[in-house]
Amino acid sequence: MTNPYDDAFAKSINDPDAFWAEAAEDCHWYKKWDKVLDDSNKPFYRWFTGGEINTCYNALDLHIENGRGDQLALIYDSPVTNTVKKYTYNELRDEVAKFAGILAAQGVSKGDRVLIYLPMIAEAAISMLACARIGAVHSVVFGGFAPNELATRINDAKPKVIVSASCGIEVKRVIAYKPLLDEAIEMADANNRPAKCVILQRPMETAGMIEGRDIDWTSAMADAQPHDCVPLAATDPLYILYTSGTTGEPKGVVRDNGGHVVALKWTMKNVYNVDAGDVYWAASDVGWVVGHSYIIYGPLLKGCTTIVFEGKPVGTPDAGAFWRVIADHKVKTMFTAPTAFRAIKRDDPKAEMLKKYDLSNFKTLFLAGERLDPDTLHWAEDNLNIPVIDHWWQTETGWAICANCMGIEHLKIKEGSPTKPAPGWNVKVVDESNNLVEPGKIGALVVKLPLPPGSLPTLWNADKRYIESYLEEFPGYYKTADAGFIDEDGYVFVMSRTDDIINVAGHRLSTGAMEEILADHPDVAECAVLGVDDQLKGQIPVGFLVLNAGVDRDNDDIIKEVIQSVRDRIGPVASFKTATVVKRLPKTRSGKILRGTIQKIADNKDYKVPATIDDPAILGEMEEALIGIGFAKARK
Ligand code: COA
Ligand code: AMP
Question: What separation in Å is there between the alpha carbon of 24 and the centre of ligand 2?
């Protein structure tokens, strides 16, 4: 007996050309593709080569032509400014076309990069879509990053124009973005700096403008000439999104136009079970991949109404914020990270706030970005009485690798599993020698090549790094850098990262990048940063410092300095607030720091003394140090 999920999955793997060509028929093409899957330049597989498309056209103009011009496309809901602003497809298209005109007037054209450093406001969506309209490649940088991170991205992307705002608004404070931007531009190499910056002045804090470089968003829009969509090759880049790699140098994940339009539009019905006209809300940030795929592109490509929410799950003003938005805008499907639900549960454990709102339109909750812990899953299920769907994906993949594809078949939910591979994703588990392992055995989670459309074709200007990072270790496969297993029923379980990436409140961070900063401190001889369990954020980074011999300063001062350095160089998003000084770090005889063991001690989990340890007594010292900062046994 067959079932819809098995059929769809088998077709996607056995005949990817037919599978994705059918999905592509649902999109607007200026010129149809010559090849669906082009494998003429392995391992650089490309989708829909020869085809011509425009992502913005598919996201806006197409719906207007199909009679949806007066339907709401975007709702900007901002509890931090007490604003709700709604845009129909007609209105959003007009704003986007005008902003595209402003960019074009500044000489931005196909292939030029535009960096976007904006808070969660409608203008973020407008800028991204305007780039897509004229074929410029956008690179959105999350507001919680420090100028140094922004400068790294400016140096790599070399944007012609930067779009930013005077400020962003966090729960308790206004964050002046413009000085951060000016500092970042100053830090960037002179020949990588943008010619122009378009700045949206927000009333909460206005910014000083630099004569000749800075353009005021509002006055430019007042007399902008709308620009039409430009046909692009399916393989032309749509955006670059930088994500943490295993060093301080972020990876510029590239997304193309054709495969991305096809895949994301397909996921809206098949994964999320939404149709044109439905209200779909991803409570994330445009600075992350979830924001790109499911605040902006996915819902608009499908003709849904999307929500840009400038607020937090708690504190704006309370733990009922999500329920209020769902009720006010009749949200059918919501997507967020488990950490947001842990924050709500912490403030309102009995979900009293929920009772104040009519959530009758709310049908499915999707969670991703980090492991979905059983407590959070059950709390959400029990209080919402709707399916709560875990799904697993990465910045690189652009959409779900594994999901319970609600529009294909609602499979049984197994706690701790994001269910089965989504069509297109041939997920396997291999050991260190690249051999497939038996069901139930933990190994490296990999995906057999080719990856489906919408996934990264390469890294920006770094084909070699793309191969080294993802394709080299397990030939024939894409390395997800997650470890896990597949059970007898084909359910995938994602256990942990195999590299130094940690997940803090659903944000992906490199402990290696933090270690580089700690090691720069003049008093630090050696250091380690580890992600330890945190009830709210899933994981938080904790630093261990070994000081140089002869340092006789107060440890607390050194700790404060390294914490401040991480905040200054990576940004507040790192949530690096805890460090301790230790005499030495536990290592193997070959000198490798025993991170896994320290992590287990910190999390108060059972651990075995590794046979290869240099000196087992150090583990006792580590435990004492961890108790001193509230971890290990102190957690009981
Ligand atoms: N601009 C500037 N600063 C920002 C920022 C932004 N866009 N976003 C976050 N920050 C700052 C915060 O103010 C905070 O600073 P602080 O150390 O001075 O308090 C720091 O970065 C850490 O932010 P965050 O990780 O968001 O922690 P939080 O304690 O403020 O909030 C949650 C915790 C769980 C409520 C919050 O992380 C959240 O809403 N998560 C939702 C899930 C999500 O968006 N995941 C993204 C992937 S789906
Ligand atoms: P990002 O690139 O920021 O989306 O982070 C991707 C990483 O987050 C993955 O490699 C996983 O380690 C983790 N992740 C995302 N979704 C899940 C999930 N549903 N379950 C477990 N881990 C997840």
Answer: 27
Domains, the chain, in order of start with CATH, read: 4-311+391-484 (3.40.50.12780), 505-628 (3.30.300.30)
Q: Distance between CA atoms of 540 and 563, rounded to whole angstroms? A: 13
> Which pLDDT does position 625 carry in this prediction?
92
Q: Which residues line ligand 1 (CB under 6 A)?
A: 119, 143-144, 168, 170, 175, 284-285, 288, 290, 312-314, 336-337, 339-340, 343, 369, 505-507, 536, 572-573, 575
**Percent of the chain beyond pLDDT 70?**
99
The first and second tokens of residue 578, run together, are 């805890």
What's the pLDDT score for residue 611?
Answer: 86
- CA-based nearest residue to 567, from 553, 556, 559, 577: 577
The greatest distance separating any two alpha carbons of the chain, rounded to the nearest whole angstrom, comes to 75
Cβ of 395 below 6 Å from ligand 2: yes
Which pLDDT band holds residue 1 (cuts at 50, 70, 90)?
low
Stretch among 243-247, 291-295, 427-431, 550-554 having the lowest mean pLDDT:
243-247
Mean pLDDT (whole number) for 622-636 = 85
Q: Region 391-411: what's the mean pLDDT?
A: 98
Radius of gyration in angstroms for the set of CA atoms belonging to the chain, rounded to a whole number: 24
Ligand of minimum distance to the alpha carbon of 283: 1
Nearest alpha carbon, ligand 2 atom 6: 394
Task: Look up residue 31 and give its DSSP letter.
Answer: B
Q: What is the mean pLDDT of residues 303-308?
A: 98
The Cα–Cα gap between 409 and 593 comes to 45
Pocket test for ligand 2, best of 397, 508, 509, 511 (most atoms within 8 A of CB): 508
337 CB near ligand 2 (under 6 Å): no
Residue 237 has pLDDT above 70, yes or no: yes
Among 170, 244, 296, which residue has the most ligand 1 atoms within 8 Å of its CB, making it the best to mutate? 170
Residue bearing the CA closest to ligand 2, atom 3 = 508
